[in-house]
Automatic annotation (TrEMBL):
One of its GO terms (molecular function) is mRNA binding. The keyword RNA-binding applies. It comes from Effrenium voratum. PANTHER family: PUMILIO HOMOLOG 3. Residues 92-192 form the CPL domain. GO terms for biological process: regulation of translation. Keywords: RNA-binding. This is CPL domain-containing protein. GO terms for cellular component: nucleolus. Gene3D superfamilies: Leucine-rich Repeat Variant (1.25.10.10).
Length: 295
């Protein structure tokens, strides 16, 4: 493979034009020397962001980020170009995976077996410790990702791609400012008709996933969502998709009694609202399961 790298790396950028070429490049990057990798990175000037959003080449971008030891070079080229288009990348079907890998490399909840297999290919020419490489790349990349998520936390939570990046970020760093931004966004959204984006299956699933990431110490997302967002709009929440969020909250001893007490107080109103919702042809399984918890 080393001999093959010597023969092919000069024109390696052209391999990105096909799936077969990209898969060959995944292997070449593991054996290419520092000089060859540097030349390859320079050949991609102005193309880093488009390649990260490409359905084939995004995996190559992940491989570059995990094999090239010269993180100063990557920061000046790859990372610098990504930062210019960070919002687009965060919400992109493929690019969000590139960013998420740097935050949570190898996470089976976020990446497919194919992606993990590609990133696990041998890389004997890489000398730097993976954790150190990751830390050096995230030094400038992580604040840029956070900036996008802080601006649009709830929009990210309802987006099929960005929600994975949001989970990856909070898995790696339970950031207090990001939690506050997300809760504040839900509070504002709850004031809208039918709870706005909160009455969305993707949103409720995302909130449940994020609540499961809560550390023992630090801001508790579940408690803040209950007290500031759902409790003030309990009837609407209980008869919407947010019922599933409330059901998940009931699994927490710290919240269970408070939620059940409020549900008992408003049970009659909730039942009437439930009947109206069901008569309109809307699904109410979550609400029925929630009321079943009220003894």
């Amino acid at each position: 493979m080393t001999q093959l790298a010597e023969q092919c790396m000069d024109g390696a950028a052209y391999l990105l034009s096909s799936k077969a070429g990209a898969e060959a490049l995944l292997r070449l990057l593991g054996v290419a020397n520092a000089k060859q990798r540097k030349a390859f990175c320079r050949d991609l000037k102005g193309k880093w962001a488009p390649l990260a959003t490409n359905s084939v080449d995004y995996v190559v971008m992940m491989r570059v980020a995990t094999t090239v030891d010269d993180t100063v070079l990557l920061s000046k080229t790859m990372v610098a170009e990504w930062i210019q288009d960070m919002e687009t990348l965060c919400f992109d079907k493929y690019a969000h995976k590139v960013l998420a890998w740097l935050l949570r490399p190898g996470d089976a909840h976020l990446f497919s077996p194919y992606e993990r297999e590609c990133l696990a290919l041998p890389a004997p020419a890489s000398q730097k410790a993976p954790a150190k490489r990751q830390q050096e790349l995230l030094r400038t990349l992580k604040p840029a990702i956070l900036g996008v998520l802080l601006q649009k936390p709830l929009v990210a939570a309802v987006d099929q791609s960005a929600k994975e990046l949001l989970a990856a970020y909070l898995s790696s760093d339970w950031d207090e400012a990001l939690i506050e931004a997300l809760v504040t966004a839900t509070v504002q959204e709850a004031k809208k008709e039918d709870l706005g984006l909160l009455n969305n299956g993707t949103a409720t699933h995302s909130l449940i996933v994020l609540m499961k990431l809560e550390p023992e110490k630090g801001p508790h997302l579940s408690q803040q969502l209950w007290e500031r967002c759902l409790r003030p709009h309990l009837v609407a929440a209980a008869t919407s998709r947010c019922a599933f969020v409330l059901l998940d909250m009931l699994k927490r001893d710290s919240l269970k009694e408070s939620i059940l007490m409020d549900l008992r107080k408003k049970k009659g109103v909730i039942e009437k609202a439930l009947a109206t919702t069901e008569a309109a042809g809307l699904k109410v399984n979550g609400a029925k399961n929630l009321l079943a918890e009220v003894k």
